[in-house]
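Table 4 source record.
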Amino acid sequence: MQLLYGAIEDIDRWMDLVKQVRWNFPGLETETAFKEHRETVLKFMGKRQAICVKDGSRIAGVMLFSRGKNMICCLAVLPTYRRRGVASMLMDEALKNLDRSKEISVSTFRADDEKGAAPRALYEKYGFIEDRLIAEMNYPNQKYILHPEGSLRKDRQLAINSMVQRIVNKLSGLRPSVYLYGSSVLDDFRLGWSDIDILVLTDGHISEEQAEALVRLRQEMLIEEPGNPYYRLFEGGILPLDNFLTKTPGRTVYWGTSGERITNTYVFDSFSAAQLIDQGALLYGKDIRDKLSRPDFHELYAAALRHYETIRKYARGAEISLYSFGWLMDTARCIYTLRTGGIISKTDAAEWALKNNLCPDADIMKTALAVRKNPLKYKSSLQALINADMLFKAVQRFADILERELKTNLKQNLSYP
């Protein structure tokens, strides 16, 4: 067998292979879709991003990859040639063409799909790890990522995957939906500052025994892996979907910065709700976000107002911490949301505020950005970076800008696009 780059003269035999396995590829069911795929293959051939394995004149396997998107786009092998190294030949060549210093992605079938066993095993053999659940062509899939060597995000994702599996095991029978949101999905996670925000919603009531097991889970995993820096960072709520939707009491497990507890309520602020709906990552279970209502302008306004009131009351003092710099970024996020209705990361919000000359103390905001981008470097020397009085005065001056924004929005009764 020989690996070759696809050429236009191969297109008919290439599509003959696709026709034989099209049942395994959602989205190719109709003749129109099949013809569109043929045109796609021709475009990939023209860019030398289509490869095949031939056995004589017969095409045994095909693959499309994208250098621009750094991803594996399509892989198919004839049933009679499976388990004979064809897929590995294709993978080896594709990875030579992709940038190993960056994340390489691929979409494949989910773990509970009978069609997923072979491709998932192949990608895992090459070091790809499970990422978020997605849907393509209205079919449930899962994203896999091959992380570059030494990637911190890989270590974090492995910890997330382990935590999700343990949560699911302890909620046996309750068919949980597990979501990741916050800095981890906004590409703004910073070890030493950020949390790992999760939300777990079940389709039934959580038993007392299950709640007791879950409330201890973070500590259990830290004991098992004492050197892992991520397990202690998980924060969020685990509760029944019905109670979450109706905001009624129900047994809930809460993990927070100050500890963990079993409670009957869980407060999910409007900023988090909007971000969950817009950008949250489904990690396990059924996506139930169609049951959720995105907060309207007035709810987001109320959340920004509460942030403003908190700043006025608490953003003062003689000692500073990483979170003292966070006041500036959170204020920038509030202004951004009031103007656009969107939710962005703390880093992006700070850079947006600087670009638009919104922050009265630009140099202090730049210092806050430097700390945000490398908290482990600055954590032990924050007092040397800036005087606490200067920082908190800058926070209050920026709060003046937020106050004017709140008054403007209230007066005009604006709604976001």
